[in-house]
Design brief:
Elements: H1 3-25, E1 39-42, H2 43-52, H3 54-61, E2 65-76, E3 84-87, E4 95-99, E5 115-126, E6 128-136
Parallel strand pairs: 1-2, 4-6
Antiparallel strand pairs: 2-3, 2-5, 3-4, 5-6
Helix pairs in contact: 2-3
Length: 138
């Protein structure tokens, strides 16, 4: 191959890569309010599943939209970030549900002890089981 053909090939591949990157960057976000939960589980059962066998729990829940029901342990909010609600699991650690920054919420304050259901993306376990992009299910 000549140097000119190699240069044209590299430029063509770069153009294709740029087009794919642009498409992925501008891909619309999933609407969590209307999305369907692939699984419904109690907070304590979800935590126990991860605590018993993390690999099996990842296969079942990781990256999927799930609905989790439990009692509120605490609510926290750092400035400039969405509220995080920790659900009780009967353990020192819990299930943390971070509210979706892209959705409208009827409320962001929850009272300790009240039972709630959140739907969100399971991000796995890091001491607590983590859910992101959560919305309250009524």
């Amino acid at each position: 191959m000549t140097g000119k053909r190699i240069l044209l090939l590299i430029m063509g591949l770069g153009l294709i890569g740029t087009a794919i990157g642009y498409f992925l960057w501008n891909k619309p976000h999933e609407n969590m309010t209307t999305s369907k939960a692939e699984a419904t589980v109690e907070a304590s059962a979800l935590f126990q599943s991860y605590n018993t066998d993390e690999n099996a729990a990842n296969g079942k829940y990781l990256g999927k939209t799930i609905a989790v029901t439990g009692k509120v342990k605490e609510t926290s909010k750092a400035e400039g970030s969405p509220s995080k609600i920790t659900l009780e699991t009967g353990d020192e650690f819990g299930v943390i549900c971070e509210l979706d920054a892209l959705s409208q919420h009827s409320r962001t304050d929850f009272t300790a002890g009240e039972t709630v259901t959140f739907k969100g993306k399971c991000d796995g376990i890091n001491l607590d089981v983590q859910l992101s992009r959560c919305v309250e299910v009524k």
